[in-house]
């Protein structure tokens, strides 16, 4: 297990500056965005048609001892607006092709969410079982939109030697272990998850227990924490739509690792990942609105590295 960084948090820096900063932190693994959410400032898809640029990019990473854990193209491939869907799908397609050329094993994406009919303008995320038309919407979404797209996209990725890791995220059809496993049963074993425990916490899902359910479906892991505010939770419940920057009034906010849950929790999280076969990368994703990117990154890297050393199999550790 090793700590990596999703470089979207350093989008204001050039790739050279990112590498310099990460080397000072002792980090040599990156997850690079290529487009959609949140964009791809450090990994341009137009390299696909430019051998010289691709060679220069690979050489720069190799010269600095930097490996890529995943390429990320978090998008909305099932958006009911055809233009929006096509744009997300094209970024996904190109990202898979670029991952193949770079030897990157995993591409991270969102499942997306369709509308409620062919004429819908916006996605329709169904969150409860009743009234009865909610069940009709769900059936239509999965049968007519989700399954056809993801079966083809999974096969395309497999043909190019790349796995797809879906980040379970509310607002999309895949947001929980159950919906993740449902998609996997439809699209096949080349589809798994980018496991972000922060999205489990606020849904009331135990992230460690969920590892035992997901097992070998975990292809990549984001390291991000969530803090629940017991004072506000009774008012809003977990489906809190206030802005992330309204920290005082939200039921929960994303936090840097260690600021929602302590070292004991993260130690068990890492150990359970190992127990179920994941010994790859913990990719730090910074969305803590109470810390700058630089502060949050440094704290998360040091916090996680200390736990990885402590939890490393066969290594005695005394504080």
CATH architecture: Alpha-Beta Barrel
Largest sheet report? 8 strands, parallel, barrel
- H and E order: EHEHEHEHEHEHHEEHEHEH
Within CATH, the superfamily carries the name Divalent-metal-dependent TIM barrel enzymes
Total beta strand runs: 10
Which strand-content bin applies to the residues? 15-25%
Domains (count): 1
Strand line-up of the largest beta sheet: 1-2-3-4-5-6-7-10
Describe the structure.
α7 (207-214) packs parallel to α9 (263-275) and α9 packs across α10. The longest helix is centred in the middle third of the chain and has 28 residues, at 132-159. The protein has an 8-stranded parallel beta barrel with strand order 1-2-3-4-5-6-7-10, surrounded by 4 helices. Strands 8-9 form a two-stranded antiparallel ribbon. The chain has a single domain, classed as Divalent-metal-dependent TIM barrel enzymes (TIM Barrel), CATH 3.20.20. The protein has 10 helices and 10 strands. The chain starts with a strand and ends in an 8-residue tail after the last helix. β4, α4 and β5 form a beta-alpha-beta unit. With 319 residues, it is an alpha/beta fold. The chain is globular, with a radius of gyration of 19 Å. It is 42% helix and 15% strand. It has helices spanning 15-25, 51-63, 82-102, 132-159, 177-187, 197-201, 207-214, 233-236, 263-275, 293-311, and strands spanning 2-6, 29-33, 67-72, 106-109, 163-167, 191-195, 218-223, 225-228, 252-255, 281-284.
């Amino acid at each position: 297990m090793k700590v990596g960084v999703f470089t979207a948090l350093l989008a204001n820096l050039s790739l050279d500056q990112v590498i310099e900063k990460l080397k000072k932190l002792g980090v040599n693994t990156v997850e690079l965005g290529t487009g959609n959410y949140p964009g791809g400032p450090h990994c341009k898809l137009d390299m696909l048609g430019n051998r010289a640029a691709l060679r220069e990019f690979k050489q720069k990473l190799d010269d600095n001892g930097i490996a890529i854990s995943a390429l990320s193209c978090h998008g909305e491939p099932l958006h009911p607006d055809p233009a929006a869907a096509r744009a997300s799908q094209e970024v996904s397609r190109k990202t898979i092709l670029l991952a193949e050329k770079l030897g990157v094993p995993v591409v991270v994406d969102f499942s997306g969410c369709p509308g409620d009919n062919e004429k819908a303008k916006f996605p329709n995320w169904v969150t409860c079982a009743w009234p009865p038309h909610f069940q009709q919407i769900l059936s239509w979404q999965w049968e007519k939109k989700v399954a056809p797209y993801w079966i083809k996209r999974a096969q395309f990725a497999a043909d190019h030697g790349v796995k797809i890791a879906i980040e379970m995220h509310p607002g999309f059809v895949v947001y929980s272990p159950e919906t993740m496993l449902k998609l996997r049963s439809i699209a096949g074993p080349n589809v798994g998850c980018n496991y972000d425990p922060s999205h489990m916490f606020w849904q009331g899902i135990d992230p460690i227990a969920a590892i035992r359910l997901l097992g070998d479906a975990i292809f990549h892991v984001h390291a991000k924490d969530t803090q629940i505010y017991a004072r506000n939770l009774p008012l809003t419940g977990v489906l809190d739509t206030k802005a992330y920057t309204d920290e005082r009034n939200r039921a929960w906010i994303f936090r840097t690792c260690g600021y929602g849950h302590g070292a004991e929790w993260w130690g068990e999280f890492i150990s359970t990942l190992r127990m179920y076969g994941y010994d790859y990368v913990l990719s730090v994703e910074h969305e803590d609105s109470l810390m700058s990117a630089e502060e949050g990154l440094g704290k998360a890297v040091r916090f996680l590295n200390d736990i990885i050393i402590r939890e490393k199999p066969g290594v005695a550790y005394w504080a």
